[in-house]
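Model the whole thing, not chain by chain.
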Amino acid sequence: MVVIVGASIVPINRYYESSAEDLAFEAYKGLTGELKDRPKADVVVISSTYAELSTNSVNLANKIASYLGHQGSAVMRVEAGESGGPAVYTAFSLIKSGIADSVLLIGVEKMADQHGKTIQEYTARGLNYKDYLAGIMPVHYAALMMKKYMEVYKVDYDYFVNWPVKMHSYAVENPMAMLKFKVTPQQVKDSSVISEPIRLYDTGARGDGAAVVLLTSEEVARKYSDDLAKLQSVKGSSSDLEVSTSAMAVRDLALKLGDSVRDYYVQVHDSYSVAAAIQLEDLGLLPRGRSLTELDSVEVNLEGGLKARGYPGGATAVYQLAEIYLQLTQKFKGRTTSKEKALMISTDDLMTVAYGAKVIRE
Amino acid sequence: MKIFPPQIWRLKEELYSIVFGKCEDCGEIMYPYRPVCRKCGSMRVIKVKSKGYGTLIRYTISYQHREGYEKLSPMIVGSVLLDEGIEIAAPISADPEEVRKGMRLQAALRKYYVDSSNGLIVYGIKFRPADQD
């Protein structure tokens, strides 16, 4: 059994005075303050998608492990798909297989040291090289997906406004959120156009951040904490990039995750409002073409989502896992779920890589 | 963005034409080309060159751009249904005022990017309004 024994996050923001190592330390300090014993990690797994680009640095895993005093641990950085799901998969697998008894999972990303145009440049590198050279960005594909969704389901822009309005209403209650303010439908509709029909409020709010989760085997879990959550399963899938109203990787992931997700508190990767709609529908949680008008019927992204809690690149999935742990152990200081089971969905911006993790309160 | 000349040279076929893959065993069509079929796993995937004509089925006009692409703003990116029946996303070289759904397009060689560090110019395919027959 894989157990989450503790987790800590720093608020996503612009940290001009802090390096990636400093942010990881802040999150780690929060974790150690919650545990009964100093964490010993057989493996330190780092999730950071843009480390080489945003910090002009390589070998980040060893640098952070060393900064946190974890000499002697096996160290690695894992990435595929921009948002950290593979690192969760790796950490889970290491313990589930018996290779490790404890894994310190750290998500960290520095997104705010550069101008927004530079960040667009980084994120575009996830596309195929020909698209990248042509100047195409992920938001262009997202805009085409949104237009197709509007055509297929005969909805207008007002339909998508529901998502940022809901996410911001949750973020107001989350002291760790980046954008702690409400927005009105009119403010969303009046926000600047990025790539029509996508407007500013349809996109995730990128920022710096770090989150830490300590996972252990059942045998050593209570050495660290009595507030435990079980990481029941982690699955993953991938696909080609398509302009579609559905994401093959997410559909395939839903099949691998098995039973209905209706009993779960769910976090989706809302890189764009249309991505939230597609994931909710591909998971079978809400009906196709109506998901964003039925948000009151489900518990989704109570922390505010990428839209308002913030979007720290490759650290995002570790934030999700940490928040879910805090939710299930009733430590989360914000809008809380009433459910005892949670599912996090982690994808890249355009949902070609998808991971899902199920967590249950112990 | 720093361009490495060998990378561009290797990509010349994809940059200067539209190449898709067709599996000779199961018929699966794949864009971009790759040597192994995603459906049946066959390695008998042949390269097929598009004739470069298609129809614009939807598009986005973008008001944000990356570093080095300032002159392209506002940039148009469209879903193009090639006459061979494949839908691809591609940059559209047209005036935002004239672009419309359903318009006929043809591939054209256009400038993509100039690397200011070494003066290297990258060219590639964009779609422009098709010539009238």
